[in-house]
């Protein structure tokens, strides 16, 4: 069991509360363990923010930026159960998920003005944010370069029903206060390279702590100036997690998040004649009728179907992997049993 005094503790500024305290007290960490929050993860080492400052520790189990942990003698002795987990399908194509940040309250989905592929990426990131249990907020960056701001904001609002949309320019300062007001609790910035995440993060932090880079004029893409996920305290309260640009945004175990991101499609589906309507050629399909009447963009409907198929495929891969692991374990059990029987017969 660990011991921790809340008197003059800085941990509440990182999100520590009585619930985390109770989880820590019920853990099996050794006496004298120190609570802290993972600020950065490197190979074989994690940086943890504690009451005594930033300490380095060796992880005994997998940790992610945002995790609350208990450190003992330079080792992460326990990782407290996560409240929320922002994850995507691994970029390698493996069936495991890649955790982007843990215990997140707000996801700032950044998209640069002028991006030609913004809508599809926004829908994916919003689905992942809803699935995590956090609240997504759409942030249109670089609005000082936008000729049709109202039109672009309206387009984003249609791509994410029920999600707050904020325009911001870190250069002029317009919209920074609105983003700061939307950044509640633990906030993570996600989006493609060149979206201006680090520039926006510096504006929210009130200082140039993070490196920023130029965007290539030929394709409007940026370099990965942020190469690690980093958790930093915000001057207005809460903490901010900056992340490297995401080239691939795969979904995995995100059915509920997809349905919430496409609430307009799901609401229409409830009016189909058949409860198991596949929205193909069934009579009385409310979704198809809305598409034919231009009440629902065909692109959006196809995006929903694509994400659901991708999520189901990822689930099937996971099931196949688990089945393979079970077969391997039983083969090993059988092998061990035969070896014991042979040993007894000698």
UniProtKB/TrEMBL annotation:
Top-level taxon in the UniProt lineage: Bacteria
Assigned keywords, A-Z: Cytoplasm, GTP-binding, Hydrolase, Metal-binding, Nucleotide-binding, Ribosome biogenesis, RNA-binding, rRNA-binding, Zinc
Sequence positions that bind Zn(2+): 272, 277, 279, 285
Positions bound to GTP: 141-144, 191-199
Chief localization: cytoplasm
Family: Belongs to the TRAFAC class YlqF/YawG GTPase family. RsgA subfamily.
Name of the protein in question: Small ribosomal subunit biogenesis GTPase RsgA
UniProt source species: Actinomycetospora rhizophila
